[in-house]
Write a structure and sequence with these properties.
With 386 residues, the chain is α+β, with helices and mostly antiparallel strands. It has 10 helices and 26 strands.
Length: 386
């Protein structure tokens, strides 16, 4: 049987899929009878449902191009004498290698072709998506489509068009207050209207824990990540945001809380007045366009760049005097990509504005123009080179 390795790989794929002609089946059966290792490998692959699904995708690929990409990524090139003939068991390895290198990119629906800038591929921006964890532990995926459910105390929950709304009804007796958690993954954002009418925007990789009914004396929520709050005014019922870095107390106002860092929380006030407390007990009162950075020991108050801080909530990136690593952290969260630095990056600051609805390639082109750095996109990884 005088075939090149790509033909052998194609033959084996179609054998595992049951798509051989009678003549081809005879060829494979002859190979199996002559090679026990090959027979065992084929039996393992043929009896695995996941592998069958992956092979269905692999059958659509250009095998020779895939193999060249495998060589390019691994850096291994076989001598010419060995390329002429590959043992049959090695053809299985060829298939496995192509599956490993091609599958992640192909299965991510946000990875698309880049027809404009010359990147290996492009990545679509994040979307309105979240996971809601109910009081009984049940988990619900939220997006743009309408979903409705009732909590055990009768509270009505409706999610649609990127917003989750809570509508309290006559309360049923419950032994303990019911608590829900809204978790937003990377490449996501979501808005929630709490039972008191307050609205919270959650940024990517953030979560908010809250009761489905607030007590008569206070309103308390717990935040990880970043959120923008518009709190319904109620002097008799103060609103508290608890983070790992401290606490924010308000009556009714608009403010942003960045608690991505585990050792500090940054609170920026847009309107109204808030009290920021550090874990040490130190406090600071903020007025509009001020921000407080609170850690375990101290609080520092500064002038806030409100436009920059709230840009994510308004649908765009706004960089001003930002280092590249800080910029790439924002990009990584919104596009769900990993960032790898291939060389030392200069400690310079950059500025620019771009819509968060732009594709990853469009954002990187903007960064390329202002920084002079080079970027590559490989699946869901961005490589940065000085």
């Amino acid at each position: 049987m005088d075939k090149n390795p790509y033909d052998i790989a194609d033959l084996i794929i179609r054998y595992l899929q049951g798509k051989l002609t009678p003549e081809e089946e005879q060829d494979v059966n002859r190979l199996i009878s002559e090679d026990q290792v090959l027979r065992k490998l084929l039996d393992q692959y043929r009896n695995t449902t996941e592998v069958k699904q992956r092979l269905a995708f692999l059958g659509k690929l250009d095998k020779e191009k895939a193999w060249k990409d495998v060589i390019k990524k691994t850096g291994h090139v076989a001598p010419k004498t060995k390329r002429i003939w590959i043992p049959y068991a090695a053809a299985i390895a060829l298939i496995a290698a192509m599956l490993i290198w091609w599958r992640p990119t192909a299965q991510n629906e946000r990875v698309v072709n880049d027809p404009s800038y010359g990147y290996a591929n492009d990545v679509l921006p994040g979307t309105a998506q979240a996971e809601l964890i109910l009081s009984d532990g049940k988990r619900m995926k939220l997006g743009e489509t309408r979903i409705g459910v009732n909590e055990h105390d009768g509270t009505q929950l409706v999610s649609e068009q990127g917003e989750l709304r809570y509508t309290p009804t006559e309360a049923k007796n419950t032994e303990h207050p019911l608590v829900n958690t809204l978790k937003v993954p990377e490449a996501g954002t979501y808005r929630i209207r709490l039972p008191d009418g307050s609205t919270v925007w959650l940024n990517a990789l953030s979560e908010l824990e809250f009761p489905v009914r607030f007590s008569e004396s206070e309103r308390t929520v717990y935040l990880k990540g970043e959120a923008f709050f518009e709190v319904a005014h109620n002097p008799a019922q103060p609103f508290n945001v608890i983070t790992d870095g401290g606490e924010v107390n308000v009556l009714g106002t608009a403010f942003n809380v960045d608690a991505y860092a585990t050792d500090a929380t940054t609170t920026a006030l847009v309107s109204g007045k808030v009290i920021v407390k550090a874990k040490s007990g130190k406090k600071a009162i903020l007025h509009p366009r001020q921000q407080a950075v609170a850690n375990e020991h101290a609080i520092s108050v500064q002038v806030a760049d409100v436009e920059k801080i709230t840009a994510w909530k308004n649908g765009y990136f706004h960089f001003r005097h930002d280092g590249l690593e800080d910029i790439m952290h924002q990009i990584s969260r919104w596009y769900g990509v990993k960032v790898s630095y291939r060389s030392k990056i200069p400690k310079e600051n950059y500025g620019g504005t771009v819509s968060r609805q732009a594709t990853l390639a469009e954002v990187l082109e903007m960064l390329k123009d202002i920084s002079g750095l080079s970027f590559e996109i490989d699946g869901m990884t961005v490589f940065v080179t000085n």
